[in-house]
């Protein structure tokens, strides 16, 4: 539990962190790097649950939330506002993720489960800060989870999302296809007139 030169200490991490790291495939770590990438888990869910329970019994820490926090029935508008204020600077306002410094990145939350959203807020994996009860109450966390689950299920009303990366990707799309189309039409008209 105390860790080694190549592995962190597990004292105080609790079952929530263990479940998050193993179920998202971040652990066991394949190679040292700026950030552990998400990949397919190497253990079954019963094995993950057993390891999480063992760590919780030996090194207690954050535990699983009540089902109410994960139910997606919170205040979506308030959750979206809290997400924009606390999370969007890294995860993007549309939860599409984004690049950080030194080869690190904030992962996309477009298909993340409610449990893993909560676990990330409470345990602060890798580059993410811990959002304790002094920062965000359980009701606030429920609202953020509800907003993200709502966003995962909603349909893009504006047509193509273009990766939800904002005006840069949209502007590039217009320049490449819009201006390119105008040039092609101009060449065609010129060729027809000759």
UniProtKB/TrEMBL annotation:
InterPro entries: Cyt_c-like_dom (IPR009056), Cyt_c-like_dom_sf (IPR036909), Cytochrome_c_Oxidase_Subunit (IPR050597)
Transmembrane parts of this sequence: 172-191
Position of the signal peptide: none
Annotated keywords: Heme, Iron, Membrane, Metal-binding, Transmembrane, Transmembrane helix
Stretches assigned to the Cytochrome c domain: 74-152
PROSITE patterns: CYTC
Entry superkingdom: Bacteria
PANTHER family (alphabetical): CBB3-TYPE CYTOCHROME C OXIDASE SUBUNIT FIXP (PTHR33751), CYTOCHROME BC1 COMPLEX CYTOCHROME C SUBUNIT (PTHR33751:SF13)
Protein name per UniProt: Cytochrome c domain-containing protein
